[in-house]
Amino acid sequence: MAGFRAGQVKLKQTKRQGGLLARVLIGSFLIILTAIVIVIGFEQRAELARIEERRLELVAERDRLAAIDADLQHLQSIMDTDDYWEHIARSELGMARPHEIIIRVDD
After folding, report:
1. CA 36 vs CA 5, 24, 32, 58, 107: distances in Å
2. How far apart are CA 73 and CA 61, in angstroms?
3. Helix (H, G, I), strand (E, B) or coil at 42
4. Which whole number is the average pLDDT over 8-20?
5. What pLDDT is attached to residue 40?
6. Gap between the Cα atoms of 60 and 54, Å rounded
7. Residue 103: pLDDT band by 50, 70, 90 thresholds?
8. pLDDT of 28
9. Do 20 and 28 meet the contact criterion of CB atoms below 8 Å apart?
10. Which residues contact 102 (CB under 8 A, 6 or more apart)?
């Protein structure tokens, strides 16, 4: 009987040690998993900051290009008028309307 009881005690100790080992392994796994999640979170936060910075750069570029587009559309609307072309013909090409007399004064 004493041998039987000793075997049962030894079996209980082995089970306890096995349960303890399982708990230690599970706890270690959870700690490592938590560390990985934290590192990934920091990396994502840094990436999000880079993306936001790039977004702001692109918004500024879009606004700059929209202003240029508005200026070009304004110039095109001016160029579509006869007054503009008459101004160019007179100032750049020295042209005049029929029956007009051009008087030049050279300094």
Report:
1. 46, 18, 6, 33, 83
2. 18
3. helix
4. 65
5. 94
6. 10
7. confident
8. 95
9. no
10. 94, 96
Span 65-76, mean pLDDT? 95
> How far apart are alpha carbons 39 and 48 in whole angstroms?
14
**Residue 11 predicted with pLDDT over 80:** no
Q: Are 15 and 22 in contact (CB under 8 A)?
A: no
- Sequence ranges of the domains in the chain: 14-91
Q: What is the residue type of 107? A: D
For the chain, the distance separating the N- and C-terminal CA atoms, rounded to the nearest angstrom, is 136
- What is the spatial distance between Cα 31 and Cα 20, in angstroms, rounded to a whole number? 16
Using the structure block, give the residue that is written with the tokens 């006869």: 82
Q: Tell me: the pLDDT tens digits for 34-69?
A: 999 999 999 999 999 999 999 999 999 999 999 999
